[in-house]
Amino acid sequence: MVVVVMEFRIDRRNGVPAFQQIVQQTKQALRLGVLVPGDRLPTAKVVAEVSAVNPNTTLKAYRELEREGLVEPRPGQGTFVRRTLARPSAGTDSPLYGELVAWMSRAAGAGLEQEDVAALVASAMEKQYATGTATAATTTGSTGE
Length: 145
Prior knowledge:
- The chain is mainly alpha-helical.
- The chain has helices spanning 18-32, 44-51, 55-67, 95-109, 114-128, 136-139, and strands at residues 2-3, 39-40, 71-74, 78-81.
- The protein has 2 domains: 2-81, Winged helix-like DNA-binding domain superfamily/Winged helix DNA-binding domain (Arc Repressor Mutant, subunit A, Orthogonal Bundle), CATH 1.10.10.10; 88-139, no CATH class.
- The protein has a two-stranded parallel sheet. A two-stranded antiparallel ribbon has the order 3-4.
- α1 (18-32) packs across α3 (55-67) and α2 (44-51) crosses α3.
């Protein structure tokens, strides 16, 4: 059994409920391979102490993740990752991640703020995935350098 040290960052100003932020951050960790099947999530008590959220908030998030088949509670043991969302080409050790980090560095060097970058990324994602599926034709070619 592996206990993953994962701290949830709860932003109370963004309007997204805390339980939903926990769900989103857990899914992100599952997509990036930070969490893998068999890993134990932090207890609701630990999350409450570290993130200053009510333990019931964490339990609600974990129930949502359980409904989606991503985690499973084991009475007396904790909540464990059941399946991953990671894809080999989406991990932090993939070439795509390296390209994205390099692009982010160029964006910051050009004076863009985090909100500017988020807006550009959101716009590009909407355009790329507008039909529900990505097309290889629009992802090949220039890397923007």
